[in-house]
Amino acid sequence: MVAEYKIYIAGKWTESESGETFESLNPATGKTIGSFQKGSREDTRKAIESAENSFDGWRKMPPPKRGEILLRASRLLRENKERLAGLVTLEMGKVLAEARGDVQEAIDVAEYMAAEGRRLFGHTTTSELRSKFAMTIRMPLGVVGLITPWNFPVAIPAWKIMPALICGNAVVLKPSSDTPLCATEFVRILEKAGVPKGVLNLVTGTPDGVGKEIVTNRKVRGVSFTGSRETGEWIAKNAGIKRVGLELGGKNGIIVMPDADLELAIDGIIWGGYGTTGQRCTACSRVIAHEKIAGKVERKLLSRVRRLRVGDGKLKTTDVGPLINRHAVEKVHGYVAIGRDEGARLLAGGEIINRQGFFYRPTLFSDVAADMRIAQEEIFGPVVGIIEAKNIDHAIDIMNSVRYGLSSAIYTNNVEWAFAAIQNIEAGITYVNASTIGAEVHLPFGGMKETGNGTREAGIEGINEFSEIKAVYIDYSGKLQRAQIDAG
Fold first, then answer.
1. Distance separating alpha carbons of residues 253 and 273, to the nearest angstrom
2. Which is catalytic among the residues 281, 284, 298, 450?
3. Residue 487 has pLDDT above 90, yes or no
4. Distance CA 300, CA 24 (A)
């Protein structure tokens, strides 16, 4: 019998008003994991009301006390790391080592944000008038709606929930319908850690039933979304006057220069391009190789790609797990056909694996031109294309030729080339001699151009996303003082 899971509103696990459910599938087998509530707009309104009703008490709790709850959550996450990692592999499909990393990221961000409860810094400054004190303090936004994707089903909810809570906000979470089990278990841990009833609410369901209500509801004072550019654009147009944070994907590249350590570069390309089956917004889908070593890069990379083992992520022998669902397989296969039609040379892969689940052969193209669709559009699968560059300036131009600007990398031992990349690549992240992935929770994460709207997550930027700044003036002069008028 398939287990049925509920939504979480006002501290109670309950069924949806709609009376409808949907199933979550194991992408390695296509079999049902569980049945989940198809939340309605009415459910979402109840969750928002619950958050609104609990907000005042939560914001008045001293931030260090809020931090203690987050620290308990981090310890519970650590105690449940293996169990949660197994659920990530079961529901999302990534190999178990990466699933452990997914959970570890949640542990790390919980610990980091717990400590922010003793900081939440404003600043003091001087006044232009006598006997007047000036400072800033942080204030929570209020009710915030968090809409998260399936590819990091524990880490990304943690990125958003932990800073939102430590800042004193009340939360409504809508996870992806591809990974609702991971979100449910994550919320259970926060419940056990002592987050008060109503402060954190979980509504599973569709974008129409849940997502639109979160975005458009006037009681929601902030929305944080990670997902597709198209959905992000809709949110930006329909959210109204509220704080909106958008992280919308990437078309990331790795530059390989003639002096690079090629073995290290190939390791980075394999990890960046085929790790998580290419289903990362930071995934490397473009290898921009200097023309002097492009042939070597192609040969070495092809040899490694052909040896990648595709299978169920729970098996130790698996290098590349499944794609998330049937639609993802069809999308990737469609882009492979586009690449062939555009004249790119298919070196490896390019085929659906005929077995249970949603598997696709790791794919490599060469003779890719920078303006081809496979070099411009986000594929979100195990597809990498090699583009030749004449010199460092040409390589950077190719890197910058896409609409996105999330992650980038360069492999070189030449400090001039490295700093040219750092200063001139239009991306929120640049790695030197490392791959395009691997966020550390105390550094800002986010991108330029159509990757988002300028918001950054993690570190102090996570605090900035979920708090307002209030300027405070204390005039103890005992008389009316008028800034700008009396200062002269």
1. 9
2. 281
3. no
4. 39
Give 140-161 pLDDT, tens digit per residue: 999 999 999 999 999 999 999 9
CATH tag, 7-248+452-471: 3.40.605.10
Q: Is 247 known to be catalytic? A: yes
pLDDT for 90-135, tens place per residue? 999 999 999 999 999 999 999 999 999 999 999 999 999 999 999 9
The mean pLDDT of 468-474, rounded to a whole number, is: 97
Give the residue extent of every domain in the chain. 7-248+452-471, 252-432
String of DSSP letters for 20-85 = -EEEEE-TTT--EEEEEE-B-HHHHHHHHHHHHHHHHHHHHS-HHHHHHHHHHHHHHHHHTHHHHH
CATH class of 252-432: alpha beta
The answer to whether residue 167 is catalytic is no
Cα angle, residue 185 at apex, residues 180 and 188 outer, rounded to 5°: 125
Which position among 111, 185, 213, 247 bears the catalytic label?
247
